[in-house]
């Protein structure tokens, strides 16, 4: 979390091999984790010029990139779980999410979406109001977390609940 932390380079040798393999089979869609500057996507485009990129914003530094430099070239993803760990004041997560959807109206809301359904068929009140808040903020694409996607029933329950929540929002 220290502001002086800077990762050297963008793509590892393994990342480059994955990109080459993706190209060979005709894949061009990528989600880049912990994007903190335009150079992160530029590095991928050096290996795959036709890449369609979703930039996962997971840190305060990534949030600054969105506020100060984001140019709309790529789609944004608000990776809320990791971002929440990174903020010094928990309530700043709200401003980050609002800034991301304002900069990219097609942004994806991810992490901790309807997580209570991973543990039972009854959703929590917090999960329902959380999704409604995200919808009211402008998010229209949601990515369920790993914990929900582990079981068929929880995925179906989450999709049905999303449909019900959105149906009440208009």
Quick rundown:
The protein is α/β, with parallel strands linked by helices and about 170 residues long. Helices cover about 50% and strands about 10% of the residues.
Summarize the structure in words.
The protein starts with 12 loop residues before the first helix and ends with a helix. The protein has helices at residues 13-24, 38-47, 60-68, 80-86, 92-103, 125-137, 146-149, 152-169, and strands spanning 29-32, 52-57, 75-79, 108-110, 141-143. It is globular, with a radius of gyration of 17 Å. It has 170 residues and is an alpha/beta fold. Strands 1-2-3-4-5 form a 5-stranded parallel β-sheet. It folds into 2 domains: 10-110, TIM Barrel (Alpha-Beta Barrel), CATH 3.20.20.60; 112-170, no CATH class. It is built from 8 helices and 5 strands; from the N terminus they run αβαβαβααβαβαα. 50% of the residues lie in helices and 12% in strands. 27% of the residues are buried.
């Amino acid at each position: 979390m220290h502001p002086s932390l800077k990762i050297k380079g963008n793509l590892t040798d393994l990342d480059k091999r994955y990109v080459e393999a993706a190209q060979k089979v005709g894949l061009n869609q990528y989600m880049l984790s912990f994007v903190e500057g335009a150079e992160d996507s530029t590095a991928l485009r050096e290996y795959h010029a036709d890449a369609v990129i979703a930039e996962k914003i997971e840190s305060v530094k990534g949030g600054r990139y969105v506020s100060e430099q984001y140019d709309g070239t790529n789609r944004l993803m608000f990776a809320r779980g990791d971002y929440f760990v990174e903020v010094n004041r928990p309530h700043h997560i709200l401003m980050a999410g609002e800034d991301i959807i304002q900069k990219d109206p097609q942004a994806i809301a991810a992490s901790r979406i309807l997580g209570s359904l991973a543990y039972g068929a009854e959703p929590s009140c917090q999960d329902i109001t959380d999704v409604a808040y995200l919808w009211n903020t402008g998010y229209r694409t949601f990515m369920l977390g790993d914990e929900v996607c582990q079981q068929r029933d929880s995925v179906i329950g989450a999709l049905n609940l999303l449909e019900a929540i959105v149906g009440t929002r208009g």
